Structure formats: C-alpha cells, structure tokens
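Minimal example, chain plus nicotinamide-adenine-dinucleotide.
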Amino acid sequence: MRNLTVLGSTGSIGTQTLDVVRKNSSELKIVALTAGSNTELLKKQMEEFKPELVCISDEKKVSELRETALLYNIKVVSGMDGLIEAATLEHCDTVVTAIVGMIGLRPTVAAIKAKKDIALANKETLVTAGHIIMPLAKEYGVDILPVDSEHSAIFQALNGENHNRIEKILLTASGGPFRGRTIEQMKNIQVEDALKHPNWAMGRKITIDSSTMVNKGLEVMEAKWLFGVTYDQVQVIVQPESIIHSMVQFKDGAVMAQLGSPDMRLPIQYALFYPDRPYLDSKRLDFYELGKITFEKPDMENFRGLKLAYQAGNAGGNLPTVFNAANELAVSKFLNRKIGYLDITGIIEYAMNNVKKIENPSLQEVLDTEKTTYELIESRW
Ligand code: NAD
Ligand code: MG
C-alpha cells in the first residue's frame, strides 16, 4: 500500500490523481488532501477518501469543513503551515504536488526533508529552485517522479538507459490554439479564446501558459534539472496532434519516444506505480485513424515567451524565478481582464530586465525575488 498526500486535490491534476487512486484502491491510499478554497469539492473528497488530514488555504473557510471533519474524524488545518503539515505527515510515502504556482515550493522542500517521494506536477518548483531541490532530493534519498506528460515521456524513454548517453531531449509542444499567428494577429485575443486548448483540458493558468508557449519554456527549464542536461541539449519540436509526448536522442543516433492519446492519468499513474504499468481505461491510439503525425519548428519570434525562457534559463541565478513570477502575476492580471494578451510577455521581459540578478539564490532569496518581481510589476501595471 502506498500512502499519498495530494497538494491541490481539487484541481485538474488533483482530481485526475484521485481518479487513479479510486481505480487502484487496493494499492493506493489517501492520507492528506489540500485545496485553495473549493470547500464543496474538498468535502466530497473527504467523504470518499477519508484522509487523516485536510488543509484549506483560505482560513475563513475552515468552519465550512467542520461538520464533515467531525463525522470522519479528519483533522483540518490551513495556511502555509497546514500545507507543510500535510506534506510531511508521518504516514505519507509520496506527495503529489498538484498545486499551481510558487506556493508549492516550501511544502515540497519540507516533504523532501521528511523523506517523502515526490510525484511532481508543480513545474514552478524546479524552474525556480531546481538548483536546491535536485541536490536536496539526492541528499535525502528521495525520488522525484515527473508527472508533467513531456517529462514523464522522457523518463519513460530513459528507462534502463545510461543517462550519460543522452545527446538531446526532444521536448514536444502542441503549439497551442494560436499556432501560426503573428504578433499582430494576437493583439486582440480575449480570455475566452486563450482558455481553449486544442488537445488538453487543464487548469486555467497552465492553459494560458500553453497558448503563449511560456508553458513550454517552463518545461525546458524543468527538463534541464530533472535530467541533468544543458539548455543546448533541450530542443523544442512542435507536434500539434499531441501524440508524441516527448523523445530522447542518444549518442548513437537512436531516438526513443513515448506515444499515447492525451490523458494525464497515464503520467500520474506511471509516477505512482513506477516501473509498473497497471491497466488504465484510457483511449487507445488508432494509427490507421490517425494517418499522420506532423512536426514544425517553434516560432520564437511571434511566441516570445519561449525565447525569453531560454534567455532566463541560460542566465541562471534568480532569472528563472523572475521569469516565472512575472508570468504568474501577468497571467492572473490577464485572467482578471486588467491587461491585454501580449502584455503577458511584455511584463516578463520588463521584469527580467529590471529585477536585480542574484547568482545561486538561497530558498529565501528565491521567495524574495518573487516578492520583488511582484512589487516591480504592481508599481507599473
Ligand atoms: P488547477 O488550477 O486546476 O488546480 C490547482 C490546485 O491548487 C487546486 O486544488 C487549487 O485549490 C490549489 N491552489 C491554487 N492556488 C492555491 C493557493 N494559493 N494556495 C493553496 N492551494 C492553491 O491547476 P492544474 O492544471 O491541476 O495544475 C497544477 C500544477 O500542475 C501546475 O503547476 C501545472 O503547471 C502542473 N501541470 C498541470 C497539467 C495539467 O494537465 N493540468 C499538466 C502538467 C503540469
Ligand atoms: Mg506538459
């Protein structure tokens, strides 16, 4: 039996994780769940999975959970301390980080120090603190198992292989809903347009990030840390059907890929059962029906988010944090209709040029950089 804590259980990855648990209840058990503010869904999850502990980040909402908590004898906590308590619970073996944003950083560090394996969906963790997280995981002997579909594909392609023989990581991208458009043609994009992804149903923030290709930029940085490669070794390939989830090219020229229909439950399940592959009721690929798979070069001139991500990654230090924090705030402003679509990359670039660079930032400096970046943006937009 593997005991799980799910950070962000009410979100897209969180609910799909619980679906995997539901279908494998003799092998997986939930010990803790956390949510930002959705108490209605969290209550249903408490009734179904009966965890030991739940955390609701919005402290004003604790009382809404009281009745259900009493009925099933569940401890209710809140805030950052609550997230950390959930991530370090004694009976937990693996923490699924399905929470969105840099808020996932401190609970993940705490979980590693408490020797919990990490099923990592929260990409902001490695983007901002890969230089801290990867050595820490090694020191505490914990596994970081990727949940992001591309990184899971790479992880699967590397199974049984010698990591020193990686020549290139071929990171695939759908290109998002605006693939093929010029900057001029993207000026008037509205929130509703950007929230429509062609292949994947995901949370709001990552859906916007996919449309700007900032998501792919974050994934390039995530790949660097997870697989110990340089930025020159990570090549983005647009593959609009989202059938090839990523590939690895080895030093002998062989390319290994993982294919499948787009369904996040596969990478989630693989992270929880690695290296086993239990049955999953997902749609099977039908190659006759598919006919062909197409490839394109990413357009970094019109989709500046990807270019800026490579720049931030290559600059290193706290620049990836500036990139990520600026994007988080800009996306939330766009979703609240405070700024235009193209302002997202404009804000990222402005922040990258104006926040003071710190080489090799500590965890505190990473968190301080987030704050400084937010203050800088708020003073102008
Ligand atoms: P989502 O918005 O659907 O869910 C986020 C979860 O985090 C929810 O449970 C929410 O309550 C919680 N949360 C949000 N803000 C919070 C806060 N301030 N405090 C505490 N809890 C908070 O997001 P998602 O799409 O499931 O993505 C989660 C993470 O996984 C992100 O980092 C994303 O980049 C990554 N990811 C998602 C997908 C996907 O298919 N959805 C794929 C790959 C990676
Ligand atoms: Mg992905």
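Residues 124-140 form the longest helix (17 residues). The first strand starts at residue 2 and ends at 7.
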